[in-house]
């Protein structure tokens, strides 16, 4: 009873006094690192775009494949995870009455592990000993330090997951029978998904270290690729679920509305957690060695992820319309006139949300055998990645930053930075339309991915790709301008903006809403269901890959 009273007092004190400074320091550090990584990764991306267009000749000491590997690792692993944890821990601290001291220690230890891992990964890439790209597919073999660095980075992510679990478990212990607050519920789902998604890639990396050291002569390529994509596909949806948390929880508050159905929100989270890890095989749908029945099963498993996304689209546009009508909006689509388009916090989230429609539709192409055969090894795939991560996820993160950074820094968003943010959002969006649109189009014409600039001996087909490569370069140039503006805005809000209080905007549930059933809190049950679905998806094919394994492959260095 005394513990519960202390927890209640702590919660009230936190809400009264504002952000907990020790917790804010954690989030501030994680976010600062994430935007530094964004800046470096942005320039690496520009170098790639200019090289693919034939406008930039990279020096011999920093070739295209080094740049490609660093850009992928920086943007897909480091930027996203540092931002995600900075964001989630700020919310956990806000909703659950401040982080426990042991949780702070865990998160700082995780930070150190991730930084050590990032350094160990980057060193061999700079030495041109690990140009294996973000996917690090064997039989391409990197320096052992690269894989060891990935282990440190994965351990850091796991520690962050464990810290969140401890924090939420402590709150539940002191609030028996209550529903975990909605943001913390999102954080729980994201961390559950990440914790289990890391297991296959950790097994793969630990399996590759002895091979990279020469202790094992060959590696099972099919097992390695499958373990990677069980993680790699899920990572995409970890970003997506993080962005979704802002759509459901933050966006309604910014427009003066309420959340649509607390039950639906929690069901969407559960569904995304249960069904996500099984989608990995659609990245291997044209690989040899996988039986047709397994591929067909995974087509359905991958497409199933679309259902919670459709539920999200329904819920969000219902919120927009209902809120707008309360504010005087009329007509079939009159809601759009009442939205705060001049508020960068909403504008970035809305474009992020809207972009997921074409991004998700493009993903269906990679899930279907016949369509994927056309686009799989083309620039279409790169365009799809940039639409999902570069618009849906990145713009959501940018929109979040315009209130989160002032919140944890004890400062306010000024009209000048808000206006700069609106400009930055449109520059970023237009840049991605140029880049991703050109990538999708030229991919349909057969332009391959994973290659530096070449005209293939001035072949007519390759020369026909040139206008699209120029459009990619234009898009990349706009994007680096967007990166610079975004990082400037973050630094300003973090260190130089006027001091003051900024709200952590969490929307309330609908008035007179029906009670949320408590079975949504049974995370043990949902994890068991998730593991059963994962076993159904992977046990048979992986067993087949091991029992009837083809001859293993030695390592190759093609750069």
From TrEMBL:
Keyword Transport: yes
Keywords assigned by UniProt, alphabetized: Electron transport, Membrane, Respiratory chain, Transmembrane, Transmembrane helix, Transport
BP terms from Gene Ontology: aerobic respiration
Domain Cytochrome oxidase subunit I profile: 25-497
One term under GO cellular component: membrane
Chain ranges passing through the membrane: 30-50, 70-90, 106-126, 146-170, 182-209, 229-251, 263-285, 297-320, 346-365, 385-405, 426-445, 465-491, 523-547
InterPro entries registered for this protein in UniProt: Cyt_c_oxase-like_su1_dom, Cyt_c_oxase-like_su1_sf, Cyt_C_Oxase_1
Gene Ontology MF annotations: cytochrome-c oxidase activity; heme binding
Stored PROSITE patterns: COX1
PANTHER family: CYTOCHROME C OXIDASE SUBUNIT 1, CYTOCHROME C OXIDASE SUBUNIT I
Protein name: Cbb3-type cytochrome c oxidase subunit I
